[in-house]
Design goal:
The complex is a heterodimer.
Chain A: E1 4-7, E2 10-13, E3 19-25, E4 31-38, E5 42-51, E6 54-57, E7 64-66, E8 76-78, E9 87-94, E10 99-101, E11 105-109
Chain B: E1 4-6, E2 10-13, E3 19-25, E4 32-38, E5 45-51, E6 56-59, E7 62-67, E8 72-77, E9 86-93, E10 102-104, E11 108-112
Classes of the chains: A mainly beta, B mainly beta.
């Protein structure tokens, strides 16, 4: 089955720790995205990548970092510099039209 | 910057009626406009895409209209069922410019009475 996987589904971390969220796709899509979703805020773009070894900041990139070493993988690191990291994180991929989303990772930082 | 407004945070309708959700935007019109469905705790699922030169698009019980003069899209679900209860997201797609980016509205949560 083709699709996008995100792991883990739930993640708990202590404040001050960096954490990396996984995103893998086997759809052969060039473009991949990371969004953050908070209650009442909708989806906000963190980073996106249109091709391997290249990525751009989205609207809320501060406190986050990404890499795109392989076409299939686009991991997101939430650093200790992110002021409010607790949120639902969604990864997506596309070929330029509709986006295909993963199941999401709910990160809780205490 | 581009603003997107979806008519209300929540909409409750009677089972069997047509649900109509609104998406309004400011500034310039996108090349495409997309609609997604999101269930609680899950990722959005693509439903329909409409191009700026198309007035209407249909898929089974779903219909989307796109009026670039009014800067508005309407999303209709005919004969709405409890299984249609979800949050519906509107997204503006400026990929005509090659950026592949979407700008999402906050969504409208559809429920049934």
């Amino acid at each position: 089955d083709g699709g996008i996987t995100q792991s883990p589904k739930y993640l708990f971390r202590k404040e001050g720790q960096n954490v990396t969220l996984s995103c893998e796709q086997n759809l052969n899509h060039d473009a991949m995205y990371w969004y953050r979703q908070d209650p009442g805020q909708g989806l906000r773009l963190i980073y996106y990548s249109q091709i391997v070894n290249d990525f751009q900041k989205g609207d809320i990139a501060e406190g986050y970092s990404v890499s795109r070493e392989k076409k299939e993988s686009f991991p997101l690191t939430v650093t200790s510099a992110q002021k409010n990291p607790t949120a639902f994180y969604l990864c997506a991929s596309s070929t330029g039209g509709e986006q295909y989303f993963g199941p999401g990772t709910r990160l809780t930082v205490t | 910057s581009q603003k997107i407004e979806q008519n209300s945070e929540a909409l409750n309708i009677q089972e069997g009626k047509t649900a109509t959700l609104t998406c309004n935007y400011t500034n310039y019109s996108p090349a495409y406009l997309q609609w997604y469905r999101q269930d609680p705790g899950r990722g959005p699922v693509f439903l329909l895409l409409i191009r700026e030169n198309e007035k209407e698009k249909r898929k089974e019980r779903l219909k989307v209209t796109f009026d670039t003069t009014l800067k508005q899209s309407l999303f209709h679900i005919t004969a709405s069922q409890p299984a249609d209860s979800a949050t519906y997201l509107c997204a503006l797609d400026y990929s005509g410019a090659g950026s592949y980016q979407l700008t999402f509205g906050k969504g409208t949560k559809l429920g049934h009475t």
